[in-house]
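A student in our group prepared the protein record below, which I am reviewing. What it holds is a sequence and that sequence's fold in token form. My question to you is simply how this chain folds and whether the tokens agree. Do not assume that whoever made the record got everything right. I have pasted the whole thing underneath without changing anything:
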Amino acid sequence: MTRTMARLVGLILLIACMPLLLILGLVVLVLQGRPVLFHQMRSGKGGHPFKMVKFRSMRDLRDANGVPLPDDERVTAIGTFLRRSRLDELPGLWNVATGDIAFIGPRPLLPETITGLGERGVMRGQVAPGLTGWSQVNGNTLLTLDEKIDLDLWYIENRSLRTDCMVLIATVWVMLGGEKRSKAIPARPANRSNTQPAD
């Protein structure tokens, strides 16, 4: 799918999903309060920064020093549901419509995370990030950063219509059954870090 076609389809889906977006937004507002949407700068194709949008799933709780509490202490019940079902990503159709991301591609990461990856970050930025992708359907939050990057780079080297169709089908299964570590995770050299980033 060309970028222009993806933007057009993204816009059509955004309009079609507007009733659901409004309902989910109202639920988030009632159960979590404002803001309803979460905005954050992420790194796009070629390292170009853009503002990613999704439904907010965590409260802004901090310790006595002003440091945010761990994610599992800040995620709300509705936030857990939105994350598990991937419905928190639905506002990301706006990013597809504006051309910031594609439907399928690596998960958009923080610019500083991409910088810290060095050459691997540059290679990962050869394609636009996606609303869903190979690493997202093969474990996502259950994976370390290195494992995610390995899967992203595998996708970039092997992307095809068949692979994209596999990702779309797997995304539906993840939405219904939750995340599971996949056998598609490649073996990694022992000297790489096992950092688990917040997402």
About this structure: The two ends are 27 Å apart (CA to CA).
